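re: ur question from earlier - yeah i can do the single chain one, its not a big deal. heres the input i used so u can compare w yours
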Amino acid sequence: MLTVGEESDASRIVLDRWNLAERFESDPEGALAQLHTAVTAGDAGRDELFALAELSFLHAEQTGKQEYYL
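and the output i got, formated as tokens:
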């Protein structure tokens, strides 16, 4: 769960569904960009939107990059 510094099971499922799990480990910003594109294009649903928000926050917490808090 996010409160312990890792993504939730729900977000992990989304990463797996979109084949982004490995990419998120090695290139989180690239994985987030790909997921963001899917969400904004309307190709993704609520699960993906939730995962995008959670994973962006997690990345912001880990890196201190303010733009990922948005």
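The chain has a mean pLDDT of 94. not sure if urs matches, ping me
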